[in-house]
């Protein structure tokens, strides 16, 4: 918005391990502090300025996990649904048209692992919407919706609500459109979604993000759902298309936003979504942001290689290279749970990882095929993701997942499902946890910096349990 200092100061070293971010915004609330200071761990800041990103099953989330469910079982369950999302992402890169941006494309978002707190309408109605970087549009269940959850948006309760008809430009971006051949009518449409289907109408209303208001925000008002895959309180798209948050906010945010996703195990700490250049890390190493003409909404990066320990894993460069004509390459995505590489790449990484751990038997748990007794964890080599101009050495908690009993550790990566067009590598949210990921659409850059919870040393919490 009004940043006067350069967002990306020059640096001398061409590579980096991820460094600490300089700005920490933390919702600090643990039970010990609640007893001492009577702090509500899930309350808004006094000035309502927080824009928090929370795991869908955290204690601050309105969504409750299934009874008798354990943390690792939830991760395994979420990761088991990755193939549906990766298949969808792969179908995007083979599209031949760039003129449409569907409101809720089929199989677009899988399960929502992170939600952001927003208010919609006037006065604002509180919703916890799934945050998604690989789609553009927003949609919410509206009152009277058949098959929706109990929490819906009420258009009648908003003084700023307005429907949109087929004559508006935004309606031309909707796939599955049903408009009359002549005259005007409501901009209604039908879509499939991760095995479910829904019908909606394109409308507009005021969207409130922390203290900011976007007065005429276009979104899909869902009136009927069949199936259980649609996010319960809607979805907020952070892609690059014409109906995305960045496009609809105009110059408010200068094409810049960042987020930090907290650990799935974090209950009281929350991550944060920062919009605009103000408050972003001033010293952050970046890699070029690429664009595919077949799917310009996706955040492609120039991914050049993977090191396991000190070994740069060998495989043909075409498995990683970006090809704008085919859509092959690597994207950063907030909705896929564990990083997926095309099969030849993953197999090479897995074999080198197993070789360096050595001396043990490897087993499989769900999507994870390289699990081993935790006592061998000290032998686990670090994994470094190489991008153009940026080396990201993953913290151990971003490369290994542990069973609830603590007896097993697993490599938290997998091969892309073999029933998709195997051209897409996905850097997923488990590998992004506790990192500040910055997107600069205008200057075509993606930045990554390590970010720690300010109060992480209290009552046994590790520093990596939350975002700044």
Please sum up the structure shown:
By secondary structure, the chain is mainly β. It is built from seven helices and 28 strands. The chain has helices at residues 31-37, 71-80, 82-93, 245-248, 343-357, 396-399, 429-432; strands spanning 52-55, 114-120, 125-132, 139-146, 162-163, 177-178, 188-193, 196-209, 212-226, 235-237, 256-260, 271-275, 285-292, 295-301, 303-308, 311-312, 329-332, 339-341, 363-365, 368-373, 383-387, 390-393, 400-402, 408-411, 413-415, 424-427, 435-440, 445-450.
Describe the structure.
With 468 residues, the protein is mainly beta. The chain has two domains: 99-271, Acid Proteases (Cathepsin D, subunit A, domain 1, Beta Barrel); 282-450, Acid Proteases (Cathepsin D, subunit A, domain 1), CATH 2.40.70. Helix content is 12%, strand content 33%. It contains seven helices and 28 strands. Strand 19 and strand 20 form a beta hairpin. Pfam families: TAXi_C (PF14541), TAXi_N (PF14543). Residues 114-449 form the Peptidase A1 domain. This is Peptidase A1 domain-containing protein. The active site is at residues 132, 333.
Provide the residue-averaged pLDDT: 77
Q: Examine the secondary-structure arrangement and name the CATH architecture of the largest domain.
A: Beta Barrel
Total DSSP E strands: 28
CATH fold annotation of the largest domain: Cathepsin D, subunit A, domain 1
The Cα radius of gyration reads: 22 Å
Query: Pairing-aware structural class of the strands and helices?
Result: mainly beta
Measured as a percent range, the helix fraction is 10-25%
Q: Mind telling me the CATH superfamily name of the largest domain? A: Acid Proteases
Low-confidence stretches: 1-38, 93-112, 454-464
Number of DSSP helical runs = 7
| β-strand amount | 25-35%
Number of domains: 2
What's the story with the biggest beta sheet?
Answer: 18 strands, mixed
The global form is: globular
| C-alpha end-to-end distance | 21 Å
CATH class of the largest domain: Mainly Beta
């Amino acid at each position: 918005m009004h940043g006067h200092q350069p967002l990306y100061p020059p640096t001398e070293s061409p590579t980096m391990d991820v460094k600490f971010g300089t700005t920490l915004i933390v919702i600090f609330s643990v039970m010990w502090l609640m007893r001492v200071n009577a702090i509500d761990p899930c309350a808004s800041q006094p000035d309502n300025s927080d824009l928090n990103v929370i795991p869908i099953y955290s204690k601050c989330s309105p969504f409750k996990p299934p009874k008798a469910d354990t943390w690792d079982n939830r991760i395994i369950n979420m990761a088991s649904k990755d193939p549906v999302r990766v298949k969808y992402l792969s179908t995007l890169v083979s599209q031949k048209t760039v003129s449409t941006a569907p409101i809720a494309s089929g199989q677009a978002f899988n399960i929502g692992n992170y939600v952001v707190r927003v208010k919609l309408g006037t006065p604002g109605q509180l919703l916890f919407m799934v945050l998604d970087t690989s789609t553009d549009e927003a949609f919410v269940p509206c009152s009277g919706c058949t098959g929706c959850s109990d929490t819906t948006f009420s258009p009648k309760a908003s003084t700023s609500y307005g429907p949109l008809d087929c004559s508006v430009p935004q309606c031309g971006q909707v796939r599955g459109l049903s408009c009359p051949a002549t005259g005007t009518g409501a901009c209604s449409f039908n879509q499939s979604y991760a095995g479910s289907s829904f019908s909606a109408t394109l409308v507009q209303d005021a969207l409130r993000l922390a203290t900011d208001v976007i007065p005429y925000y276009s979104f899909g008002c869902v009136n009927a759902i069949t199936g259980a895959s649609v996010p319960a309180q809607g979805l907020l798209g952070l892609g690059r298309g014409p109906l995305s948050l960045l496009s609809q906010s105009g110059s408010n945010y200068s094409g810049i936003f960042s987020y930090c996703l907290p650990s799935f195990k974090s209950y009281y700490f929350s991550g944060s979504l920062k919009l605009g250049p103000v408050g972003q890390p001033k010293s952050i190493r970046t890699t070029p942001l690429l664009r595919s003409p077949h799917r310009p909404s996706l955040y492609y990066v120039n991914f050049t290689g993977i090191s396991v320990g000190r070994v740069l894993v060998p495989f043909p460069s075409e498995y990683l290279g970006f090809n704008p004509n085919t859509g092959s390459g690597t994207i950063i995505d907030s909705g896929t749970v564990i990083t997926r590489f095309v099969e030849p790449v993953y197999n090479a990484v897995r074999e080198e990882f197993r070789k360096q751990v050595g001396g043990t038997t490897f087993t499989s748990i769900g999507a994870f095929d390289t699990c081993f007794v935790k006592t061998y964890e000290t032998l686990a080599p670090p994994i470094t993701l190489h991008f153009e101009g940026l080396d990201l050495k993953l913290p151990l908690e971003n490369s290994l997942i542990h069973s609830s009993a603590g007896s097993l550790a697993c490599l938290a990566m997998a091969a892309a499902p073999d029933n998709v067009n195997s051209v897409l590598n996905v850097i997923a949210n488990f590998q992004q946890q506790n990192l500040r990921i910055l997107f600069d659409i205008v200057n075509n850059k993606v930045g990554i910096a390590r970010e720690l919870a300010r109060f992480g040393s209290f009552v046994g919490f590790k520093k990596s349990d939350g975002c700044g």
